[in-house]
């Protein structure tokens, strides 16, 4: 959808223009908080299963691997995701699409589920809204990895596959609206 890409470019530019002071402040504060550069870079699985580098604000101290109260605040408010506007602008991501995951999940999908890989990963999705408190949910589990692998991830795949079959620009606008206002 060309209209989706035009929307992504225009609104990521607009958001970056207005939010760059906030993003800069958050990165600077994260730099002091973690005693390291406040940007976190990680390889994620993108469109067609190709890896790309995702930008986030660092929330974990690199030596202790502990999430600080500031990092927890960034994660809860999703402010750590704001640098992904750059990923959207350069075309690695879109505003709406399956959240990009680390290797070992989306790249291992089988049969029909692999259709999800045709989509650009997104800043938001129906699945990410359903599991917006995923960290809290996983922390309550005796075996978080097993719960993620057997319950959460398969449900996200189902939701993202439904998005694949039913995606429209209007649906994207509805998902953005729900993300921002609900």
UniProtKB/TrEMBL annotation:
Protein name: Sugar transferase involved in LPS biosynthesis (Colanic, teichoic acid)
Keyword terms: Transferase
Family of the protein in this entry: Belongs to the bacterial sugar transferase family.
Keyword Transferase: yes
Keyword Glycoprotein attached: no
Domain (Bacterial sugar transferase): residue spans on this chain: 4-181
InterPro entries: Bact_transf
An example Gene Ontology molecular-function term: phosphotransferase activity, for other substituted phosphate groups
């Amino acid at each position: 959808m060309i209209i989706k890409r035009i929307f992504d470019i225009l609104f990521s530019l607009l958001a970056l223009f207005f939010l760059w002071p906030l993003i800069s402040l958050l990165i600077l504060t994260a730099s002091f908080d973690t005693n390291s550069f406040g940007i976190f870079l990680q390889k994620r699985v993108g469109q067609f299963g190709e890896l790309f580098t995702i930008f986030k604000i660092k929330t974990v101290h690199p030596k202790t691997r502990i999430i600080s109260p500031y990092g927890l605040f960034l994660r809860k408010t999703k402010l750590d995701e704001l640098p992904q506007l750059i990923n959207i602008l350069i075309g690695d991501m879109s505003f709406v699409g399956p959240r990009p995951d680390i290797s070992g999940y989306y790249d291992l999908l089988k049969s029909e589920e692999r259709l999800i890989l045709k989509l650009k990963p997104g800043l938001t999705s129906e699945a990410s809204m359903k599991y917006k408190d995923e960290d809290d949910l996983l922390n309550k589990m005796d075996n978080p990895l097993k719960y993620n692998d057997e319950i959460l991830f398969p449900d996200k795949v189902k939701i993202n596959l439904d998005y694949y079959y039913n995606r429209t620009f209007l649906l994207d606008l509805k998902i953005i609206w729900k993300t921002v206002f609900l």
